[in-house]
Amino acid sequence: MSIKEKIKNRARAALGIPKLEEEIRTLHYFLDELGDIENFPKATGALRQLQLCDTELLKILDVIFEKNNLQYFLISGTLLGGVRHKGFIPWDDDLDIIMPRESYDRAVQILREECSRLDIRFYVNKNQWFESMGIGFKSGTWCDIFVLDSFNGSSDLKLVQTEIQTVEKKIKKYASDLQVSWEDIHERQKELVEKHITSGDTLYYYWSMPRLFGIMVYSDKSCFPTHKALFEDAMLNFPNDSDALLTQIYGNYMDFPKSDVLRHGTANVAAAGDSSATMEKIKSLCASGRNRYF
Length: 294
Known about the structure:
Blueprint: H1 3-15, H2 17-34, H3 45-67, E1 73-74, H4 76-84, E2 95-100, H5 101-118, E3 121-127, E4 130-136, E5 142-153, H6 157-175, H7 182-196, E6 202-209, E7 214-219, H8 220-223, E8 227-231, E9 234-238, H9 242-250, H10 266-272, H11 276-288
Parallel strand pairs: 2-5
Antiparallel strand pairs: 1-2, 3-4, 4-5, 5-6, 6-7, 8-9
Helix pairs in contact: 3-11, 4-9, 6-7
């Protein structure tokens, strides 16, 4: 053992870190063995009100996408909540959906026009090496919409995932240049995928994930065709194989989470303000005829 490792181990022991880690592992053992995360109580109070507003927003988006023949499905924490809780994760406070490139590009203009007419907040984010758009209200009701690009590769998904790591590294280096535009980054992504991914007939989709700063790769059969399933009180689009996608993103997603919980919840809700007015606004938009889709 090196001197550096010895110093590190002594410091950990002095701070009581090994004991704390053991206590945490023990706690998670009992949670996972004895607890039932699928029946974890729903959120209450302001957080639950916000979740209900989010659900109403999703219903509006679903109708707009259906009538414009735009493909989408739930992803990330929203998909996890839909599968595990038949609705929101009890501590979650926003929405995540994803669209293949062709649908996403058309949706940008459609949503920009609709949001302007209906006085709903809308933005397109082209930050570093990922692209997304968002729609919602100042009260915290919000939906992030991500984009899936595609390529053809070999039938070996593990090989493709290994090869995409080379693309990630080169894109990170290229995107570090502040003078490079998102359009340039997107073109470079496509060039690198064609160069470093073994060609084949299997269709894959890739998603540049902002928080993880990495690329997730999904097979076409995992994503499509989508199907309707229950999320809260709405029938929304789920991917063809939710288990495959969730396992890629989270591993054993049916266990109690070990991190990423405090990022959401009541603190964010309190900062956003009262969402009851947002619910009234959403209902009035749907009832007044201002929204041409209802």
